[in-house]
Structures are given as C-alpha cells and as structure tokens.
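Q: what does this look like with D-mannonic acid bound?
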Amino acid sequence: MNTAPTQTARLTAATSPVGTLLHHRTLTPADTGIVHLGLGNFHRAHQAVYTGAALAHEEGPWGTLGVAGRSTAVADALRAQDLRYTVAEVSPDGMRYTIPAIHTGVLATTREPKQVQRALAAPGTRILSLTVTENGYTYSPRTGGLDLDHPGIRADLRGNRAAPQTTLGRIVRALQERAATHGAPLTVLSCDNLVGNGDHTRRLVEEFIAHLPAGECEEVTAWLAAGNVSFPNTMVDRIVPATTDAERTAVADALGLHDEVPVPAEPFTMWVLEDRFAASRPAWEAGGALFTDDVEPYELLKVRLLNGTHSLIAYLGALAGCDTIPQSTAQPFVTEAARAVLHNEYLPSLTVPDDVDLDAYVAQLFTRWSNSALGHRTRQVGSDGSVKLRQRVPDPALLHLRAGRMPHHLALTIAAYLSCLAPASGSDPGEHAAAMIDPSRERLTALRARTEDGPSFAAAVLDDGLLGDELREHPEFPSRIGEFVDIIQSRGPHAAALEAARSA
Ligand code: CS2
C-alpha cells in the first residue's frame, strides 16, 4: 500500500509541521480516556478535530485509542506514522491542512480483539465512542431492535467474552467487565447517523443483555440501572469522502511529506450533543461543538434534510451515470427532485431548531453538495441503503400517508434505490449503481427475480420489512414506488423524476 516516492519523507511525530498541529501537548498511552470504535475517515475528520481543539484549550485525559474494524490498513499506516495523519479540508478555493495528533494508540478488532476488550474495560477509559456506520449496530430494519438472526450477534450472545465479533457484543462484554471489577462509570457516545443514536444504542445494549443466559445479566443490569453508564444523543455532520491519491499528492506537494492516510473533508462541520457524560468529557465546545438538552430537533433536521435528500441525489445521479454528488446536483432534474423532497416531504415532518436559519441552512446544503473539489461519490452515499433509508424515509412517509397525501419523492427515493440495487434481469443500472455495497443486495435481487413488475417487487420488499412494519398499512406507497421502478426501467431516472414533479 505504501506509495511513497523515495525522496519524500514520511509524516511522523518528528516531521509534523508545527503550524499544522491542532495542539501542542505530548500524549502518551497513559493519557487515553477515549476508546473509539471505527477508525474510518469520518472519526478522523470530525471527533478527532474537536478533540484536538479541546486539548489546545485545556489539558485532560483525552488521548484517543482508535480501534479499526475489518480493515487493518489504516491502523498499520498510522502506526508507521507515529499515529499522525492530515485532515485536508477541500473547498473550491483551495486546501487547508491540519494534523489532529490526538491518538495514543491503534488496535484492530480482527487482530487484537483481547486488547480491544481490555482497553474498553480499563478504568481510565471514560468515553467509548462509536462511528461504526448504521450497519454496525446490527439492528433489524423490520423491528428497529437487535437483529437476533445476525450470526455475529448469535455467536456473541453464546460466548467468547474475550473476543466478541460485533460492536454490541464488544460494548456489553466491556460493561460486564467494568461492573464486575472496578465499576468506573462510562459514557457510550454514538456518532452515527441514527435518529436518537444514544437512545438507540442504549436500547440495543439492554436488549443484548436481556438475551444473555441467566446468571450473566443480573450484575450488569443493576450496574446500568444505578446510572453508571450514559448514552447521550448526538448529531454529527461533516461530509467526508474516501481517501484517494489526489489527497496523498496534495499533502506531499503542500507539506513535502508522504501521508499514506490523509482524510479529505469539506470545510463545514457541526456537532450537537447532550451534555450527559458519566465521567466528564473534553472541552469539545472549544472546537465549536454545541451542547444542548434536546438534540432531537437537530438530528431530525440533519438526518432528513441532509441525509434523506442526499440518498435521492445519490441514487438518481448514479442511475444517470454520475460518479460524484456534485456531478449529480449539476443535473437540473436531480436538483429539482432534491428541492421537492426536501421542502415538500421532509421539512413538514420536523420542527426547525430556534437557532437555525432555515433558508441559510438549505442554501448551504446545496452549496455543500456542489463542492466539486471534494469528489464525494454517489456509490459511497448510496451504499448500505437498506440500513440508512430505514432512518430517513419511513417516519416522514407515514406522516404524509396518514394525512391522505402521497409523498411522491420519498417513493421515488426508494424506487431509485431499488433500481440501483436490484435491477430487473436484462437491465443495467450502470457502474456506479453496481459498485454500491449493501447487506440486503442479495435478498433484494432474489425478491426481484420472484416478482414480475415494479409494483409487485416493491410490495414484496416492503412486506419483507425493509422500511419497518408500519408502512404495511399503506399499500398505496409500494404501488407508487413500483410505478417509479417501472418508469426508471423503461424510460430512465429523468422521466421518473418528471413524473414525480408532475404528481406532486
Ligand atoms: C451520507 C452521509 O453516506 C451518506 O449516507 O448522507 O455520510 C453524509 O455525508 C454525512 O452524514 C454528512 O454529515
């Protein structure tokens, strides 16, 4: 993986340019107060930057041990760079480079599972934070609860406490260990795009514990009931694409250093959190984080207006041959559909927080999506739709359907998703759709093969629980989705968007 030209020095602690460092403290493993699960780009360009600002503001035990999931490549590269990497802020006006330098170690669950469990259970660990994506919570889209059929969950409930396979297993086994030994309190901080992410994580943790064999759950249940663990809700926002050679080259040109794992990110960043920390926290407000008693309005605003609309832009764009989100929003029919779903279908389903200027927020969303220097790909936003759309679409759709209104653009969103993931045999949705990864791809493909047209396919998909159970009361919704599926197949995404606009 090392693509360093021999003449360029590697980024390390010794070579990090002083002016790019977010803080100037020396962190050692003894300063670790946060263990973070999910060492991907989002954590490294979001929470890590706020933690760097917090450390610049005041000293504290907030060094972060980063834990990688399946892939060990980032962990290995970080080790070779003394845990340093660059955040490359990308805007049409140019690039800005910073080095958070907040990590005190890296581990990989696949390689060092026991060390991961030890770190999660250590008394010095005060915050267990998470960016494991919607898919990492092993929840069932149908029930919203723990997916008890998931092989990893089944294995983790049965057994091996020292090396669980799932995030839920890791959290619960660590909580049991803490409860049984030192009892030091802990904050479990979800930083993923789930509505009520803290509450959702707490419910899944409790459900996991409730399914443990008798004798294994009592102590940890009592310890949780005594208030030793908090699960604050958070709203996280920053568009962070995957790393490409373009950022490696840009960092090499600007800093004269080879960084194997720089992270591109847009200039915009936002973090809203409930201030319920069981064992104190970094001064993240120094980096601009907002602490409030009620995160939900911010979460709904973000998960629906940004993420929900983003999904439609990704699927329509991919079907129209667009590699990136800015290429997609450059198509007038995509922007028109995005405006319609945002204003007519998502917006009526939420209350805008008092301190948010809606017009400015929406204008900024379109500017962010059109940041062509960022190269955010339709396939990235389009991946894992089965778990993402469950968070974005059903509640607003139900609101309209119960009021007797058809949410045409929400139906179009699901139709475009299904057309990308499970095209009818003989039709080709193109390379960008084909590259989308989704845990439900096989299941959807099987349903498509078993049904003869769009409406029967969409009915089978909703019956299978893709969007939860409540939408089953409204068969008119899958019918509309199915009509759009057929239009996309016969006349393309543009024609389907025109039909949605005409009906709305
Ligand atoms: C996107 C998000 O991939 C997706 O589903 O909508 O990752 C989005 O870019 C971030 O939530 C922005 O904060």
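Residues 193, 237-239, 307, 310, 380-381, 388 surround D-mannonic acid (CB under 6 Å). The first helix runs from residue 41 to 45.
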